[in-house]
Amino acid sequence: MHDDVLTDGVGVNHILEMVGGDNARRSLNALSADGRLSIIGLLGAMEISFPVLPFMRNRIVVQGISIGHRRSFERMNQAIEALGIKPVIDKVYGFDDVPEAFGHLEKGPFGKIIIAVT
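Now predict its structure.
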């Protein structure tokens, strides 16, 4: 299905890009004005080439997100479990209440905002 059909021609606000190359260009074209493209990995090409005009016209933000290695992730999880660390949860919303959850997030929650999907 074409992006314009899925979003009524508006585009999407945030894309998590994991492929790179030509797929990143398609992601760029699917963004709405003030959209954000977060690059969280590259399964394809190691270089990304974009036309400049969509960035300027739509005020698009491209953000690279780096992660640590698996050993650090495993050690962090072991420490969380050993110390009994629990997240502070401000409120749990049902999936049908996603707009309210985003409204709560904009106000600045005290803890985590959870969206239950089951």
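The chain has a mean pLDDT of 83.
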